[in-house]
Amino acid sequence: MKTLYWIGGIVAAGLLVGSGVRLLAHSDAQAAPAAALPATPAATPGAPLAGAVPAVTARADAGSTVPGVAAASNGQYQVGDQLKQSPTVTDKPYQASGKTVNGYQEIAWEALIPKDWDPMAPFKGLKLDQLTDDDPRADAALWKAKKYWKDAPVDASMEGKPVRLPGFVVSLDREGEALKEFLLVPYFGACIHVPPPPANQIIHVRSAKAVKNVRTMDAVWISGVLKVERSDSSMGASSYSMKAVTVEPYTAPDNG
Amino acid sequence: MNSPLFSTPPAAIDLRDLQFTWPRQSHPALALASLRIAAGEHVFVSGPSGSGKSTLLAAIGGIILPQRGSVDVLGQRLHAMPSRQRDRFRVDHIGFIFQQFNLLPYLSILDNVLLPCQFSAYRKQRALQQGTSLAAAAQALLAALDLAPALWQRPVTQLSIGQQQRVAAARALIGRPEIIVADEPTSALDSDRQLAFLDLLQRECAQSGAALVFVSHDLRLAERFDRRLALEQINGAARAGEAA
Amino acid sequence: MKILLRLAARSAWNRRFTLGLMLVAIALSTTMLLGIERVRHEVRAGFSQSVSGTDLVVGARTSPIQLMLYAIFRIGGATNNMGWDSAQALARNPAVAWTIPISLGDSHRGFPVLATNGNYFTHFRYGSNQPLRLTQGQPMAGVFDAVLGADVADKLHYHLGDVIILSHGMGGLGLTQHADKPFRVVGILARTGTPVDRTVHIGLDGMQAIHLDWEGGAPLPGVHIPAEFVKKFNLTPTSITAVLVGLKSRARVFALQREIADGQGYNEPLMAVLPGVALDQLWDVVGIGENALLVVSGMVVVVGLAGLVAVILASLGERRRELAILRSVGARPLDVLLLLCIEGLGVMLAGVASGLLLLSLLVWALGPLLAQQFGIALQPAWPAAGELQLLLWTVLAGLVASLLPALRAYRLSLSDGLTPRI
Questions:
Q1: Which phi and psi angles does C164 have, rounded to 5°?
Q2: Nearest C-alpha in B relative to C332
Q3: What is the CA radius of gyration of chain B?
Q4: Chain C residue with minimal CA distance to B111?
Q5: Is there a domain that residue A17 lies in?
Q6: A193 contacts: CB under 8 Å, gap ≥ 6
Q7: Is there a contact between C257 and A175 if contact means CB atoms under 8 Å apart?
Q8: In a domain, A234, yes or no
Q9: Beta-sheet strands, E only, within C267-369
Q10: Cβ of A172 and C48 within 8 Å?
């Protein structure tokens, strides 16, 4: 009789644990798309390119014909997502607090755009509401605009500033298994068949100490002194680089 | 902690109004009004199976705590000690000999004999008074118990029953504990060896001044003892019918 | 405490046959667990070390991982080729600092042949930005010059000036050989610990030369162009496997990758792969298998532990007399528990240590084979931090498992006292 109780108890415990695991896994999968939705509309005002033209860059993967791109995600992030706040605090995307930690000031990606650069410059003089549908001038202006955004200039005044900001990793070189050199980009999926970020939204990071357990598209905080890399004029815009003093996994700050 | 040595301990073993029931049993296994064994006294305890012999030995050895009554051994109140202290007391002052399979087969003969000294600093110290080293003290005892030196290096499994029992006796006697408890030590021996073993045992106990509690069903051996106890008569629980 | 250790040791030695079997089981499972971990990390580190400072690997539009595996690690099947004019267009791109065109396909006695140009020796980096170094000789100059990787020279005992014959394809059987156009060893590279070591390097012109009278993988019947006449023909390659690209500014890599993917300026579909990202994707795919393997080895450890527990539990039956003796000489029930724990833990530790030894032995014996096949260098070494953690968990599991018989012995000795009911 006792044996039966034992067997029954073990079976019950197993079922309990199993259903618990199932619920956890299920809720994880559910939370990811649910949290992503409020983020995306809010992401557009933050995106440096959009400005007053949200329709043009609604989702970074818009127009991509590669199947599965829109569905690509990394657990909590979908392609085109920006970094999140802690979901218990708010579901607005990450905003820079401007605080200084260990001498490095926290900045947002927008701070890397020169203040006098107008993303809407290619559309100046073009009244979109007066054009007919399929007007070739609109397409020509868009093509020009894309090239304009690609060669977006860097802000020379950021040279030498000690800053701290979060972003997504694109692996370049490793030392053994640890990552030594990488690119930091503002949104998820920047190298998976989506339009790449403009030149002033990419930071070429060399880490002082190779970091372990970091893969492409992991979210990290970097702290270091920003440098502007000059380039010869034939090549177009310059770019940012940094010798990162610290590289830490991204945890949403509890700014509220 | 060592038991304090009084100049003249009142009694080796003093059991009073003892009652003990094993867990999950309905009747008590042991019910004694009084049992007193003086220091150095040799007592023969007889009784058929079921008369409570193992319970009595467990009570004397401090393995069990009676539900009622008192167990005083060498003046120490065993029933008031925590179990850790009782375990220590047992090895310090009592030596046990069982019916058979007394020895650990993976230890040498000398290591078997010296086992109590490994667990008790008190016994170890007293053993060192018997010889220049622990090994010497053990060897002296083995020799006194009629075991030839040639046997000492043999593995335990190669000894005869009689030889094993004598080694067991040496282990009980090393360090001169004040009480020796022997539970049917001769029952597995040939009849002609039994008396010889008893002689050796009693001689050694007399020499060290230890009290001897000899439990056996063989009444032939009872003649060698000054005092004989019939457990079925003094154990109220046995008389009352079924005992554990 | 010392007496307990001695008793446990002697008692275990007395039952050494059955306990020994369990020790072997635990050793094997430890070897498996640690071996998988070690190979996993070594392979990842080895792959990461194979290419450094290369911004893009450009090739025909196939699978990024397949291109990386074939072009950089010489593993797997050939991908589609890309045209030479695309390679030249790439070299002319203003964003590009250098390019290394490479072409694979032939072999020499099982070692892959890589055709490239001088840029390979000036721009290729591996490990922590280390350049290639020649221990003897110099890079290819003539059409039939060859430079050997360190392992090729060692294993086949080649020296400067030796003559080698290349085979078509990776068969290694020597059936389709370019026997009429032998190559001469003019240089030997220093050891790098990467697939470079087991590669035979020739010039792109050399590769073109040996295939002049071949078509579609077989020699044209009746056509034979002797070696001394090859220079009369145009030896610029028509197609190559891939191009390694280094940029002037690493931050521009996305723009160029986009350009290549969009196909502007190239008349064939091409693909540009970031090596770091492709490797990360490879590990994502492989990681699933690795995790499955780890889970399996974990289960094997559990099985070994279960066997140990069963053996000790089974032996308790015949050890009740022994426990009673111990109690009579002053052992507490807690001492009995400790005794059993020490025994279980001791066998566990001995098993784990044996497993480590066995692993080192296997690595020492099979290491060279792995190095030859995959260019991964496995050395017998002290366990790394991650492996030590695994070992610690295993030992802890053994301790917890041995609590089972220990607790049983504890309760037995409590209930048996001095007179066990056997």
A1: -130, 155
A2: B87
A3: 18
A4: C7
A5: no
A6: A61, A64, A66, A69, C261
A7: no
A8: yes
A9: 270-273
A10: no
Evaluate whether B51 touches B231 at the Cβ level (below 8 Å).
yes
> How far is residue B110 from each of residues B97, B134, B179, measured CA to CA in Å?
16, 9, 22
pLDDT in tens, chain C (422 residues): 788 999 999 999 998 998 999 999 999 999 999 988 888 888 888 888 888 889 999 999 888 888 988 888 888 777 788 999 999 999 999 889 999 999 998 888 888 999 999 999 999 998 888 899 999 999 988 889 999 999 899 989 999 999 998 888 766 555 677 878 889 999 999 998 888 988 999 999 998 888 877 766 667 777 777 777 777 778 888 889 999 999 988 888 888 888 888 887 888 999 999 999 999 988 888 889 989 998 999 999 999 899 999 999 998 888 888 898 998 888 888 999 999 999 999 999 999 999 999 999 998 888 878 776 666 677 777 777 788 888 899 999 999 999 999 999 998 888 887 887 65
> Which chain B residues are Cβ-neighbours of C318 within 8 angstroms?
none
Domain CATH code at residue B71? 3.40.50.300
Please give the helix or strand (H or E) that residue A220 lies within, else none.
strand A219-229
Q: Which two tokens stand for residue C225?
A: 């162009």
Q: Report yes or no on A78 lying in a domain.
A: no
Strand-pairing partners, residue C60, are C270
Q: How many domains does chain B have?
A: 1
List helix spans (H) across chain A.
Answer: 2-46, 136-150
Q: Which residues of C touch B106 (CB under 8 A)?
A: 10-11, 13-14
Report yes or no: A177 and C48 within 8 Å, Cβ to Cβ.
Answer: yes
CA distance B192 to chain C (A): 26
Residues C326, C328, C332, C336: what is their CA dihedral angle, to the nearest 10 degrees? Answer: 20
Are the beta carbons of B87 and C321 separated by less than 8 Å?
no
Closest CA to A190 of A72, A38, A106: A72
Nearest neighbour of C276 by CB, restricted to A171, A203, A240:
A171
Question: Quick check: is A48 in a domain?
Answer: no
For strands C183-189 and C134-137, give the pairing. antiparallel
DSSP E strands in chain B: the ranges are 13-20, 30-37, 42-46, 68-73, 76-77, 94-97, 179-183, 211-215, 227-230
Q: Which domain holds residue B209?
A: 13-239
Q: Partners for B (CB, 8 Å, 3+ pairs)?
A: C
CA distance A170 to chain C (A): 6
Measured in angstroms, the CA of B91 and the nearest CA of chain C are apart by 5
- How far is A180 from A247, CA to CA, in rounded Å? 10
Contact C74, C199 (CB under 8 A): yes
- Which chain B residues are Cβ-neighbours of C11 within 8 angstroms? 104, 106
* Token code pair at residue B87: 């375990």
Nearest CA of chain B to the CA of C10: how many Å? Answer: 6
| Minimal-distance CA residue of chain B relative to C2 | B118
CB contact under 8 A, A235 and C94: yes
Contacts of C92 in chain A (CB under 8 A): none
Beta carbons of C417 and B183 less than 8 Å apart: no
Q: Does A193 reach chain C within 8 Å, measured CB to CB?
A: yes
Which ipTM value was assigned to this complex? 0.86
Structural domain contains residue B2? no
Instruction: Say whether residue C18 is in contact with chain B using an 8 A CB cutoff.
Output: no
| Touch between A and C (at least 3 CB pairs under 8 Å) | yes
Location of structure tokens 């028509």: C238
Separation in Å, CA of C406 to nearest CA in chain B: 18
Listing DSSP states for C192-260 in one string gives -SSGGGG-EEEEHHHHHHHTTTEETTEEPTT----GGGGGGS--S-SEESEEEEEESSGGGHHHHHHHH
Domain hosting residue A133, numbered range? 100-249
Domain boundaries of chain C, sorted by first residue = 2-47+283-416, 56-273
Q: Which residues sit opposite C64 in a β-bridge?
A: none
CATH number of the CATH domain containing A169: 2.40.50.870
